[in-house]
Design a protein that fits this description.
Rossmann fold; alpha/beta; 35 helices; 6-stranded parallel beta sheet; Arc Repressor Mutant, subunit A; 49% helix; 736 residues
Length: 736
């Protein structure tokens, strides 16, 4: 069937009220109406749904739209019915949410030819009765939305999607349009092979969203940072993504306690509550929705001003799609993600027990996310390169790395070293393996290949694994190196890379960003400022900080205890920012609770009060992060349980925590100044000799309470858990 450009524009205006098409829309629609298969790569907000909605309204028969989410179907059906007045049957969805009467209405409208668009979940498409129903109608074409779900390499793989081609053959052939907002070249190829549409015309829009600002932050004090950010952007609409349902509920409650209108959204909630919360967000009854990644697919809210990832996503595709929900109207969109390598380690643990190939794919996707988070290169350049698109501007001006550029160096020698190493190997290896060879890491795999005898083994040990990994990553972006996704990320040299090796020239690379091994600020008494065990932010009063350190040193000498037991460096840093002049105000500083405030605080607040008066300092009116009541109840329960000498495993189980979460809670209790006697548990868990060694280390040698420093000093016979338990005992006995 042929439709003229003039007729298409008329129908666009008639049905949707638009005067002109966006980007590739007209070409896609013309191609589909002409009977051709189409593969559409278009970023979120680019107008994908119009590419199948308008042709469906123009063509004879019914378009079958295969879509993964019930919420998405309902939204789109409601939208179409809104465009086409007085024709309720023009669009329907077919899924498990329909009752018998609704199901019969759908069948009647389909068989009578009234319905132009039928949205179907892939699970519903496989049901025999639905296959028989669809065989009876004329199908104009099949639209497969969120087509990345087909690929095992996609960020949201669904096995049911891989059966679509077989079912289409059974129902009856018709043109196919596959659409996705995120697909790497590998995922695109996988989708086309699976759907049998390798000859389809590919319409690829640029993945660049110039209005979006990308930023990665240390996950050192995320709750405080999030609340401060939202309060600095009053009335703006935003989404906060968390990986777990528990964290979604917790953050939503925390926001409300702090005066921010927010609701949770996750798959564990009943359908009515989920729908209510989604509608409240769309209707602007609340400002923020806190959600798992189950929220947002197909949500057409153009004025989302920020998307915050409390947890780093499992893949760059997922990250790109979720951030794409910001600024769909082309105006401001801020995309902030909190990053800690601890989150990556947790995600890797979740993969255990899955098939090996699935683990390999998952780990590789995760490592791409790590590379993105830790890189100092333009974030836009990295993202677009990931999707097979080059970005040639030197500075995008709209990401944290471009606005605050880091140190650069001439990397021609380093790149030539990498290329020389790859060329010297008979087989291909992953980036991490190559970095290990250059830094002289001796492990069983390297020995099995005899690579510890290579001339280049240990050649770059003075630089470290992170440096060489960063060089490899930048080599990939510059097309000097290539990564074979089919074989789990094996690195090879490209023709351009070989040419560079033979005729090297200046190659400016960026040094990698150093991240604090941040911890979630689960201590409710943690105040504005820095996190546990983080480095000073440098935002305080350096003169006051130096005086406070002298006072701490004198007090430590008198009491015969390490200075960090009295107050940690982050605590003093907070004092130099907030200028507390009473013991109550002192408690708002990080890692200073009731106990420490009263035991050690008096000389500190007296000194600060004098300093403030003498220097005529106007003290900041910084906001205090209000805590969630049930978290305090958790702490009371833990303290009471330890007093009753309950096993830690039982305490954790009773509060639905894992052992790691319980240890973090106990550490925060002790850090804030409460004394706990955990000897009963330590005696069962740690040999007496080990206990004495660790205790003596903290008493005589430790310069700080760092667990990683302790493990390095004590050697390989001691576990992290043992060191943390003894540190709790030590701080409790000497500091509280």
């Amino acid at each position: 069937m042929k439709v003229s450009s003039e007729d298409l524009h008329k129908k666009l205006k008639e049905f949707f009220g638009f005067d002109a098409f966006k980007g590739n829309q007209e070409g896609i629609i013309t191609h589909l109406i002409g009977g051709g298969d189409a593969f559409v790569l278009m970023p979120t907000g680019g107008g994908k749904s119009l590419c199948y909605q308008l042709p469906a309204l123009c063509l004879e028969g019914t378009a079958i739209v295969i879509s993964p989410l019930i919420a998405l179907m309902k939204n789109q059906v409601d939208a179409i019915r809104g465009f086409i007045q007085n024709k309720e049957g023009i669009a329907h969805f077919l899924n498990s949410s329909l009752n018998r009467v609704q199901m019969q209405e759908v069948k009647d409208d389909l068989l009578s030819g009234v319905t132009k668009l039928l949205y179907v979940a892939p699970e519903s498409l496989t049901k025999e009765e639905n296959i028989q129903l669809l065989k009876q109608i004329k199908i104009s074409f099949y639209a497969i939305d969120e087509a990345h779900c087909i690929s095992e390499w996609g960020h949201d793989f669904r096995p049911e999607y891989r059966k679509i081609r077989t079912i289409i053959k059974e129902i009856g052939e018709a043109p196919i349009i596959a659409l996705t907002a995120t697909a790497t070249p590998k995922v695109q190829s996988d989708i086309q092979k699976n759907l049998g549409m390798l000859d389809a015309k590919v319409f690829k829009s640029s993945f660049n969203r110039p209005n979006l600002y990308y930023e990665i932050r240390d996950k050192s004090n995320p709750k405080h940072d999030i609340i401060r950010f939202i309060k600095e952007n009053p009335g703006k609409s935003g989404i906060i993504y968390c990986l777990s349902r528990k964290k979604v509920e917790e953050i939503a409650e925390l926001l409300n306690v702090n005066g921010i209108k927010a609701l949770p959204y996750h798959a564990g909630m009943d359908a009515a509550t989920r729908s209510h919360n989604q509608d409240a967000f769309l209707m602007e009854e609340i400002d923020v929705i806190v959600a798992t990644i189950a929220f947002g697919m197909g949500i057409d809210k153009p004025d989302v001003r920020f998307v915050i990832h409390y947890d780093i996503p499992k893949s760059l595709e997922g990250y790109y799609q979720e951030t794409g929900r910001a600024g769909r109207d082309g105006k401001e969109g801020q995309c902030i993600a909190f990053y800690s390598y601890k989150d990556i380690q947790r995600l890797e643990k979740f993969m255990q027990g899955k098939p090996v190939s699935e683990q390999e794919i998952g780990k590789q996707l995760l490592m791409e996310t790590v590379s993105y988070a830790e890189s100092n290169q333009c974030r836009r350049k990295i993202l677009l390169n990931y999707f097979g698109e080059d970005y040639n501007q030197a500075n995008c001006g709209c990401c944290d790395n471009c606005r605050h550029p880091k140190k650069r160096f001439d990397g021609q020698e380093a790149m030539c070293t990498i290329i020389e190493l790859i060329n010297s190997l008979q087989e291909s290896f992953k980036a991490e393996y190559l970095a290990n060879i250059l830094t002289g890491v001796t492990n069983s795999i390297i020995k099995s290949y005899n690579h510890h005898r290579l001339e280049l083994f240990g050649f770059g040990k003075d630089k470290g694994v992170k440096f060489w990994s960063a060089v490899i990553r930048q080599g990939l972006i510059l097309h000097l190196l290539d990564k074979d996704i089919e074989r789990y990320g094996l690195i090879s040299v490209t023709p351009e890379g070989q040419a560079f090796y033979e005729n090297p020239h200046e190659l400016m690379l960026t040094e990698d960003r150093e991240f604090v091994d941040g911890e979630d600020d689960d201590d409710d008494e943690t105040a504005p400022g820095m996190s546990k065990h983080s480095v000073p932010s440098g935002g305080g009063d350096p003169q006051l900080l130096a005086i406070l350190k002298d006072v701490r040193k004198d007090m430590a000498k008198k009491l015969g205890i390490p200075s960090w037991v009295i107050f940690s460096d982050p605590s003093l840093e907070d004092m130099s920012i907030l200028y507390p002049v009473t013991l109550d105000e002192l408690k708002n500083c990080q890692e200073v609770g009731e106990g420490k405030s009263h035991k050690f605080g008096k000389p500190f607040v007296e000194l600060i009060a004098r300093y403030v008066e003498e220097n005529e300092i106007v003290r900041p009116d910084d906001f205090i992060l209000r805590s969630i009541p049930n978290k305090s109840a958790n702490k009371v329960y833990i303290i009471q349980s330890i007093d009753r000498r309950l096993p830690f495993e039982d305490i954790a189980r009773n509060k639905d925590m894992d052992f790691e979460e319980l240890l973090e809670e106990i550490e925060s209790i002790v850090n804030s100044g409460t004394r706990l006697n955990i000897d009963y548990y330590i005696k069962q868990a740690i040999d007496e000799d080990k206990l004495l060694d660790i205790y003596d280390y903290f008493k005589e040698e430790a310069a700080s309470d760092s667990v990683s420093d302790a493990l390095k000093e004590l050697g390989g016979d001691y576990s992290e858990e043992e060191v943390r338990l003894v540190r709790i005992k030590f701080l409790s006995e000497l500091g509280n």
